[in-house]
Amino acid sequence: MSAKTAERCLTIMPLVRKGVVFMKLTDSDNDKKWEEQEETDHILQKALTTKVLLGVIAVLLIFILILLTVVVSGRKNRQEKTDSDLQQSITDYAREQQELEEQVLSEEEQKPAVDKPVPEEPEEEEEEEPEEEPVSADNEKTAIVVDIEDENDEAYTKEFILKEAYPYFADNKQDAIWDLAHLKRYVKLSKGLEGTGDYYYQGDVDSEGKPNGTGLAIYEKNSYYFGEWSHGMRSGKGTWFRFYINQKNKANAMGIYMSHSYSGEWADNLPNGQGAEHYDVDISRLAPTQGRILQNVVGNFTNGLYDGDMYANTVDYTGNVQEWDAIATEGVFTLWRDMSAIGECSVWRYRDDHSVCLDIDKSENKNQGIRELLK
């Protein structure tokens, strides 16, 4: 071991100087003290850095808050100024308008007074209550005469009525045709033809003046035909209507039927070929005991008679509709079952259940068809 090293390893040696004891530190003690000092300095430095950062952040937050306060205050001041300017503009405009009105009134007062006529108050007219009219079950049609004109008005000639009705029949406007047929002038015109065998006509004619081509005819008993003609005969395609207006008879007991029509093929003035027969029915007049009645019959017709496979539907007092089929030969039905022992025969078969049939009296199984058009 060198002398220098041995010197450093010496223990604490007491020195006495003027009665005071001094302690001398060795090199080892100095190293330890320096390390502790360095650690303390490092901790203090970190604490200082943290404080500085916190201070910077606090300053930034304060700056941001100040900036936001300035911006909001500025916007508020601008809005208040805008509102103030707008209010001032409105106030100025109102003041100008008031001054202008006062000026106009002043000028009017300076003008000489002129008497103005006072309008007379119209006399109050008593309102007439509309008369109640009977309404059918479908709430659409009423089988009554509509009196809206003077029956002695000579302006309503047959020429006027034919010209008025023609376009509605040509366009097949069923509702309009119904309304026209129930006008008093139409009922009166038709009634004037009763028992004459004549008809009023408008449309195409041949060289002899007979209907030929397309035309409209008005007959007695509120009946009409529109369609094709051939030298005075209904021939081709056409539609026939009859309206039961205030009519109750054996064929229309209790006014159940409101109208009757046929649309289809014609020849020799009668339905010949494919066509459809239709009844407008007021089911409110049907009683539960009356059962079903025919509403539509579709199929082939020969001289107005059912001839071939026929289809029909019926309706009862509740409005229930059922479908049926039948076979006929020139107005005579083929029987689905023979009930001659009790005087009845089954002629229409229910399409959903063939065991159910509609019966008629045996004596009526002839000339079945559109009887109002038969010769």
Strand composition percent? 25-35%
Largest sheet: 14 strands, antiparallel
The helicity comes to 25-40%
Category by helix and strand content = alpha+beta
- What's the SSE pattern? HEEHHHHEEEEEEEEEEEEEE
Distance between the termini: 164 Å
Mean pLDDT: 77
How many domains? 3
Give the total of beta strands.
16
Shape: elongated
Low-confidence stretches: 1-27, 111-139
Q: Radius of gyration in whole Å, from Cα?
A: 56 Å
DSSP summary: helix tally = 5
Annotate the secondary structure layout.
Blueprint: H1 3-8, E1 15-17, E2 20-22, H2 27-110, H3 158-170, H4 174-181, H5 184-191, E3 200-205, E4 211-219, E5 223-230, E6 233-243, E7 257-267, E8 270-281, E9 293-302, E10 305-306, E11 308-315, E12 321-329, E13 332-333, E14 337-339, E15 344-350, E16 357-361
Antiparallel strand pairs: 1-2, 3-4, 4-5, 5-6, 6-7, 7-8, 8-9, 9-10, 9-11, 11-12, 12-13, 12-15, 14-15, 15-16
